[in-house]
Amino acid sequence: MSRNIAPVVTHTSTTTEKTLRLIGTVLRAQSGFFWVQTEQGVLECRLRGRLKKERQATDLVVIGDQVEVMPVGNGQGAIEAVLPRRSRLARRATGPRGAYKEDVIVANVDQVLLVFSCTKPEFTPRMLDRYLVICEHSELPVVIVATKIDLVGQHAAEAMFSPYARIGYPVFYTSIVRGEGIAELRSQLAGRISVVTGKSGVGKSSLLNAIQPGLNLRTGEISERLTKGRHTTTVAELIPLDLPGGGYVADTPGIREIGLWNVPERDLAWCFREFRPFLDDCYFAGCTHLHEPHCAVRAAVERGDITAARYDSYARLMESEDEE
């Protein structure tokens, strides 16, 4: 159900020194520069030195962040503070000396559009499952978007994605070539702050260009040799949408791998939503659902209440196998 939200809004505050400061939203981040929407327009900003010195296990500033800005003239400003995030989409990334850290893709979003193509590149269910775990753990609403259905046909596309529709995820079947599903997806984006993410080459930028003609986001062809998409979006950006009720969408660089960040093993089964009705019925407390006898989850798999493919994704994550 569509939820109307106010567009990215800003307001001013005045310090005791009577210096004007602004609250704004980060629309774009690149190479230490941040473009922030304020009531005075978009300011090109850098971080104050004291913020740069702060040691954090996560990104200091990302698109979608609400920040406090000090204007310095000529359309520029300095970011003085970052306000608390109400939500985030994040993945695991390699930090200094090989240690893992949190890589926040976008902050303060209302929904995540997971875009997967039916072919070219091939649909990878286990990667989709990883995304879903991340979103479930962060309690972010999810919409699954199947692209390029014209290349495989409606029946084949539904066979790929219907297991996700059956467990309650909205699935939009789209074709840029035939214009299918675009109007419905446009309505889903209206009045919301959304992030669009998925593998390279699945058609994210083309999809956004179809939803709002005139965006002219760069698109690229698929590498026939590798059957992997070339990266066409290289900078994450929050884009205003000209839709009823407004809305913003974050177009993100294509992601070849998605690692889970800070999802405790004990929470993993809960992140598979179709497991939840059975989690309290296992004989042993703390059941891992891998080898214990009288496991209600494995019994549900045997009955067909949980698909074998989804259970396999869970088992692989529990066993910390590398993603294909």
Characterize the structure shown.
This protein is an alpha/beta fold. It is 22% helix and 27% strand. The chain contains 8 helices and 14 strands. It has helices at residues 49-53, 125-137, 154-166, 182-189, 204-211, 265-268, 296-303, 308-318; strands spanning 11-14, 20-30, 33-38, 41-47, 66-73, 76-82, 88-94, 100-107, 111-117, 142-147, 171-173, 193-197, 237-240, 248-251. It has a 6-stranded mixed beta sheet, with helices on both faces. A hairpin with a 2-residue loop joins strand 2 (20-30) and strand 3. The longest helix is centred in the middle third of the chain and has 13 residues, at 125-137. The radius of gyration is 21 Å and the shape is globular. The two termini are 35 Å apart. 36% of the residues are buried. The model is unreliable at 1-18 and 218-234 (pLDDT under 50).
Distance between the termini: 35 Å
Pattern of helices and strands: EEEEHEEEEEHEHEHEHEEHHH
Low-confidence runs (pLDDT<50, min 5 residues)? Answer: 1-18, 218-234
Number of strands: 14
Q: Spatial order of the strands in the main sheet?
A: 11-10-9-12-14-13
Structural class: alpha/beta
Strand % is 25-35%
- Overall shape: it is globular
- Radius of gyration over alpha carbons? 21 Å
Q: How many helix segments?
A: 8
**Estimated helix fraction:** 10-25%
Largest sheet: 6 strands, mixed
Arithmetic mean pLDDT: 82
